[in-house]
Design brief:
Elements (H helix, E strand, L loop, with lengths): L1 H16 L5 H4 L12 H90 L2
Keywords: Autophagy, Coiled coil
InterPro entries: Autophagy-rel_prot_16_dom
Family: Belongs to the ATG16 family.
């Protein structure tokens, strides 16, 4: 990396020495970057702490969001477990309801049959006493 930076500095010095031969480049028409020691380089250097602070804030935000996501995921797993448990409980209760409804129907049928039998018996007794 240091070798690359040295090559860039050498290139910039050569460009400054021969700027009269390349007026378009000297005027900034085709420049590939700021000159060493230029005002743009100073602006970039002055922005560096702000950018580092912004990067740190973003990293903090990202880690907070990851923590929130992990919390939400665990809550979702818990809720899914609760839903599954309630669904099983509902199914058991529905089965019990069906059994009770069938037993009730049988009980009512037996009671009606007994009541009919008693009514028939009473009617026979009344007809016999006439």
């Amino acid at each position: 990396m240091e070798r690359y930076e040295r090559a860039l500095v050498d290139r910039d010095r050569a460009e400054q020495l021969h700027s009269e031969l390349f007026p378009a480049v000297a005027d900034g028409g085709l420049s590939l970057g700021p000159e060493i020691g230029s005002s743009r380089d100073e602006e970039t250097t002055s922005l560096l702490p702000q950018m580092r602070q912004l990067l740190a804030q973003r990293d903090t935000t990202i880690s907070q969001l990851k923590e929130e996501r992990a919390t939400h995921m665990s809550q979702q797993v818990h809720l899914n477990d609760v839903i599954l448990g309630l669904t099983l409980e509902r199914n058991v209760m529905e089965d019990k309801l069906k059994v009770l409804q069938r037993e009730y129907k049988e009980l009512v049928t037996r009671w009606l049959a007994k009541a009919q039998q008693e009514a028939d018996s009473m009617n026979r007794d009344v007809e016999q006493h006439r």
